[in-house]
Amino acid sequence: MDEQDTTRGAEPAVARAPGTASLTNVGIGTTSGPRPGARQATDRRSDVGRSGTAKFLGDTWAVFTREILLVLRDPFTLIFSLLQPLIFLGLFGPLLTGAVGGGMGGPGGTTAATLQWFVPGVIVMISLFGTSMTGSNLLYEMMTGSYERVLATPLDRSAILVGRALKEFAPLVVQGLLIALVCIPFGFTFYPLHAIAGLALLGLFGVGVGALSCALALAAKNREWLFWGVQQSLLFPLLILSGMMLPLEAGPSWMQTAAKFNPLTYMVDAERALFGGTFASTTVLWGVVAAAVTCAVGLFVGIRRTRKSV
Asked: What is the annotated localization of this protein (predicted)?
């Protein structure tokens, strides 16, 4: 009788195979595996303990490493991207004879004067081309369905945009240093600290351009022709009106006026000042303002468009 009293009210024992969890441990179901969404819930709980800045930096690094590994697995594209600016410099540089006080070995000036003026413009150009094509990779992921899987993760939306833009910017650092080092024997003066500051400024500007490119890709969706049509229609006028390849002083007055409303103009002038060995100048300050405004506007538009696409 006592034995019956001690067992009264207790749940009957259920025979379980070794390694299986009870109903109370799992909640619903009798399998030992995790519940659907349990890993995502664990990830979200781990994110709660991190500050907003720490989570943003961690998520940005995760996106950047994922994207850059894809680039490193294609060495041909990487090598070509490093050689392309040198080919462009060698072919276009001699055409600047007399345009900026002398060409590359041409009459009327020195090679050093041309290189000191032209090299920063080339670095800005490859930065603009690289970051403005960030959306093309996003278009491919949208067509394959991998982008939807990225959105299903607890990654910060701004970190997705910044990580992608930094992936496009990373080769620029190597390209810029390679161009500068190759031009040193021809009279180019290299200022290491000023060059690092110039590349950092381009990184800030590139994040904004990359975010705008992603926003354009999200708006175009599967219409790849629309993305490239808008991108090319905006890219080349901005490039020409910035005085990147040729000095604007040689153009008409309306072109010089239009260039004042082009943020890329202030970026090019700031890069030429920095690569020329100047830190403290209003030209550099205006370049910082242009980069910061472009970055802020790009992230605002990009994040807003990303949230609408979810």
From this structure: Cell membrane; Membrane
Q: Is residue 28 part of a domain?
A: no
Residue 48 binned pLDDT confidence (cut-offs 50, 70, 90): very low
For 31, phi then psi, to 5°, come to -90, 155
Q: Which domain holds residue 79?
A: 50-309
Query: Would you call 79 helix, strand, or coil by DSSP?
Result: helix
Average pLDDT over residues 69-82: 76
- Residue 121 in any domain: the answer is yes
Cα 177 to Cα 183, 203, 204, 235, 267, distances in angstroms: 10, 14, 18, 24, 18
How do residues 180-194 score in pLDDT, each as one tens digit? 888 888 888 889 999
Rounded to an integer, what distance in angstroms lies between the CA atom of residue 303 and that of residue 308?
9
Pick from 116, 130, 122, 94: nearest CA to 210 = 130
What number of residues does the chain have?
310
Which of these, 273, 277, 303, lies nearest to 288 by C-alpha position?
A: 273
CB 60 within 8 A of CB 164: no
Rounded distance between C-alpha atoms, residue 226 and residue 211, angstroms: 17
Nearest to 202 by CA among 239, 155, 154, 165: 165
State residue 172's pLDDT score. Answer: 80
| Residue 37, phi-psi category: left (phi > 0), alpha (psi -120 to 50), beta (remainder) | left
Q: Is 243 a member of any domain? A: yes
Count structural domains, the chain: 1
8-state DSSP, 10:
P
pTM (two decimals):
0.74
pLDDT in tens, 196-239: 999 999 989 988 998 999 999 989 887 888 899 999 999 989 99
Decide if 20 is inside a domain. Answer: no
Instruction: Tell me the CB-side half-sphere exposure of residue 59, using CA atoms within 13 A.
Output: 23
- How many angstroms separate the Cα of 220 from the Cα of each of 25, 170, 249? 47, 26, 37
